[in-house]
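Appendix B. Worked example

We walk through a single record from start to finish. Start with the input: the chain for Transcription factor domain-containing protein, Fonsecaea nubica, length 596.
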Amino acid sequence: MYELLAEIDSLRREKHSAPSQPSPHVSFQQAYEGLQPDTSPVLTQFRDEGSAEEVQAWEIAAEEPTLSYRNAQDPPLPHASATSLPRALQDLSVSGEDVDACFQIFLQHYLSYVPILETSLRPDDCYVYSPLLFWTILAIGSMRFERDPTLIIAIGPMVMELAKDAVFSCKDVIATIQSFTLLCTWPMPVETLERDPSPALAGAALQLAINSGLHVWGIGQDFSRRRLNPGGQNSVDFRAKLWVNCLIVCQRVNIAFGVSPPVLPDTYQREKYSERLSATLTPSIEFQRRLCLTHSEGIITLEKTLNSKVSDAYIVALKSEIENIVSDLKSLRTRSPTSFDQFLLDGAVLQISCFHMLLPQSALSSETLFQLYDIAVAFAQLGAELDQKQKIAEHAPPFFSRIMFLASCVILRIARSSLREALDLKKGREVYFKTIILHKRLSIRHDDAYSRATVILSQLWSGKMIEAQTRRSAGQVRVKCRSRLGMSLLYDCWWYWRQEFQGHPDPYPDEENRSDESEESMALQATPTSTDFGNMDLWWPSYEIFTGTYAQDADSRSGGLGNLTELEPNLAPAYHSLQTLPSTFAAADRSEQFPP
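Next comes the structure step. The output line below is what the pipeline stores for this chain.
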């Protein structure tokens, strides 16, 4: 792998031999003081004062960030004479032509999701303002840069090195917050979730934002050592946009990792500012602000109830709170301006509904599981439709992929339970396979976490251990991992996968969750022979995960992956050898029966 990266860098240096030009460093205070209304808070200082570089006019066809999706063909990337200067990071050189192309991709396809920059942003101005922000934008744009797909592989680790240095720097704080917000929204490719720096970046961004006074309406005078020029309302609006987007991203990171999201009091909730804030934000961001606030407050409420198990009364309270929070979330449905916002809302409903899985088995009704299954199927189906129509796997913030994985785990676990005969198994299987394909499209590198997710989802579907555990639990859906809030079921499935396909021991060896001998035998014998699965978890690194057949021979199994090969004929060999499992569980009563 490292030899490949070295060869890529060598070829790129031969292609782009022009040296980068030095640029004067402009601090945050210089860039943001003295702004006038209707000017860009990022670029004004550079255009007025000039710099050591001769920056040519750089125009692109970029719309305002309205999150409107276009089916028309995108304009071609710039191929003629480059208007931006070539740049170098460590030993990596990027031509001005590629700089322009990556910035154009970012401004056209990514910025509308997190509108914290001007759509007229020029690469050279951005580099003068903040090298970290410049390389962050270039790296995100290079994720889908077809002219040089190796660029993101080389530049990703270098950008993270810049981010690491910025954490301990006291300069350009606002630019650092912008960069970290973008890096948390579109993380650089990593082999494992263990190496995902998003939680650290999100925490740093949020703390820097608070220390800079972004949570307070105004220009932040109370948080500065020097007198600040008010600069008109444009500066206030910029700070409001950055704060809201930063908070949304930080809340999503925590939700995805199954920990408490931050809910911080700010002055933007005051009545005298709320109308101005709504006018400042795009309709989509305003909706997502309300959605994330409702979702985060709901999670914290449920967590407090789960932590107060002093009597059986908490069961009734938890059920009631789940219903109330879901109702509050659904009340936002009429405000969702786009289908993608509706998709995010449905994901929040699913994640909150998964708190039912943390109830004692005696309190978990069949009807609740039926409803949860239907919610998961509908959410996964909507995600597949949006990807087909709007290509969300290519440019949308991949936060939704973790919730899609959760939906797949819900479908899998309930379909393996005694309720299976009363479920629409055909629909569940179809959207499960579509989720596998969506993760394949999310993948940027052959060894990143999304590539690994396709294999893990496939093997979970064909595995034996989940069904064996369900049989031991009398057909009930039993969750061992219970501390990851609404994401607990997802982490529980990952542990089943580790046990069966990596030979890991049961991490919950207490009396209630003790493994039997058949499960231990399964864990020892399930490792395929053609691939080193000891290094193929979402939490451990691997560089060769598509080099063999990943499923065991299952001659005795009935069924199969159905129409998966019809959906995507170019899948890796793993998908063509996986088998489904029959069920021996008794059918549950339900008023409406679905075909198997």
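Two observations about the output. Residues 2-47+75-188+195-281 form one domain. The two ends are 45 Å apart (CA to CA).
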